[in-house]
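Please fill in the sequence for the structure shown.

STRUCTURE ENCODING:
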């Protein structure tokens, strides 16, 4: 495996899509809290393909599958193939290793690299915050050391960091206990590299665009169920499924927006108490 992926650019703007938390099953008719996750994911992919946003790559930020059956990774890979762009991924708390790496590696459009040199001005670094058999997140010593080495390797490039778990609280007690547990260690590594411009994550199934320790933090709706913010007990939201568009500029600026399905046909069972 190459240590990095070179994303060539004809102009100076790097355009990316983020999709996150599809929670796919090996059987396409299975549902999560009343939502058929294959159908909702396909609806997102269909709307993306009709969008005028001309992106170069896709970041899939974890929880690709739900039922612990690695065949669901084949479902993910076959579904995103229609986008015709390289797909980069990282682990979520519902994902399974080493099956995730092994099954996704069978598909040539799914890229294993975690360092992406994007054009002449950016690098994207994808971290594994997964803790085995736990919903919360942690960055291992190895992950933090790798992050620091890659930041030091290209100090002149602007940086977008991706991981699965949230750093900022959602003001929901049930969800915030499953956040990234060692965010201070992450902040210590990042503090030496002023070109880090944003941190991108999934996990919380809701939209965030906020500031943490002078870093922009972006979270994105799931392609299946949505969690309602500011709820101490498990609560689902009725907002439609979504994804994120990002434009990374040569001067370090990031323009981004969340897009959602224009229809709202994939409604969850609001009586659900957890999953």
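FILLED IN BY: designer on duty
SEQUENCE:
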């Amino acid at each position: 495996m190459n240590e990095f992926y070179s994303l060539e650019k004809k102009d100076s703007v790097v355009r990316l899509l983020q999709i996150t938390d599809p929670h796919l099953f090996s059987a396409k008719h299975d549902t999560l809290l009343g939502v058929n996750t294959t159908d909702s994911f396909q609806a997102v992919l269909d709307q993306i393909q009709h969008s005028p946003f001309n992106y170069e790559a896709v970041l899939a930020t974890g929880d690709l599958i739900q039922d612990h059956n690695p065949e669901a990774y084949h479902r993910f890979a076959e579904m995103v193939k229609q986008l015709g762009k390289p797909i980069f991924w990282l682990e979520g708390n519902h994902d399974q290793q080493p099956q995730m790496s092994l099954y996704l590696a069978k598909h040539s459009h799914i890229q294993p690299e975690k360092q992406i040199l994007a054009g002449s001005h950016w690098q994207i670094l994808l971290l594994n915050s997964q803790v085995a058999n736990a919903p919360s997140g942690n960055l291992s010593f190895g992950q933090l050391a790798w992050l620091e080495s890659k930041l030091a390797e290209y100090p002149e490039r602007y940086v977008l960091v991706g991981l699965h778990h949230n750093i900022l609280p959602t003001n929901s007690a049930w969800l915030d206990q499953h956040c990234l547990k060692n965010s201070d260690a992450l902040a210590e590594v990042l503090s030496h590299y002023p070109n880090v411009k944003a941190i991108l994550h999934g996990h919380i199934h809701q939209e965030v665009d906020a500031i943490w320790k002078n870093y922009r933090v972006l979270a994105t709706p799931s392609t299946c169920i949505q969690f309602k913010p500011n709820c101490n007990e498990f609560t689902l939201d009725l907002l439609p499924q979504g994804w994120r568009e990002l434009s990374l500029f040569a001067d370090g600026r990031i323009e981004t927006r969340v897009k959602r399905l224009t229809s709202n046909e994939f409604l969850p069972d609001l009586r659900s108490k957890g999953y």
